[in-house]
Design a protein that fits this description.
- This protein is mainly alpha-helical.
- It folds into 2 domains: about 110 residues, no CATH class; about 70 residues, no CATH class.
- The protein is about 60% helix and about 5% strand.
- Strand 1 and strand 2 form a beta hairpin.
- Helix 1 packs antiparallel against helix 7 and helix 4 packs across helix 6.
């Protein structure tokens, strides 16, 4: 049987899935450094024997972001220092609150944090994460849950079209 329509449908589904993952990452503010989003890869679906291989690959820490982590969490300040070196992250965090409880506009851009500042913020973040864990930001699991109900009808329609195509090809061959 020709599986052209099924493979085409699955590849279209996969592209839609990737877009939904990326949208969820933006909405949930998951991708501050850009590394996690840039690491997403969805290779084209191919038939391997009788199995259709569809996978999503990305950096290893996606699961901790998606599901969160309960305390105690093992995290080093070094990992956070790298994270805090990104200007986008620094701008998101901004400067510490002044005694009046407001952030200064100049420092809230996050530009130009020195190494001591990065080290200090990383220390306090690591301590908080170890104590409190991290909250889930289900960018991937919500995308999967939204796409699953769409997949079965799409596959059913594609298989039906492939079967009809195969029957038509068999009829043409028999008429020769």
């Amino acid at each position: 049987m020709q599986d052209r329509k099924l493979i085409e449908t699955l590849n279209e589904f996969q592209q839609e899935y990737q877009l939904l993952i990326e949208q969820n990452m933006v909405e949930k503010k998951v991708n501050a450094s850009g590394d996690l989003g840039a690491s997403i890869a969805l290779p084209r679906i191919e038939l391997l024997g009788q199995v259709y291989n569809m996978q999503v690959t990305m950096l290893d820490y996606w699961k901790q972001v998606d599901e969160g982590q309960a305390p105690p969490v093992r995290i080093s300040s070094g990992v956070l220092e790298k994270y805090l070196s990104y200007n986008a992250v620094q701008a998101k965090i901004g400067s510490p609150k002044s005694s009046k409880g407001t952030r200064t506009a100049k420092k809230s851009t996050g530009e130009g944090w020195d190494a001591a500042r990065i080290e200090q913020v990383a220390f306090f973040m690591a301590r908080s994460i170890r104590k409190n864990g991290t909250k889930p930001k289900p960018f991937l699991s919500e995308a999967a849950a939204e796409m699953r109900p769409k997949l079965v009808p799409a596959i059913t329609k594609a298989v039906k079209q492939d079967i009809i195509y195969t029957i038509d090809e068999i009829e043409k061959a028999l008429k020769k």
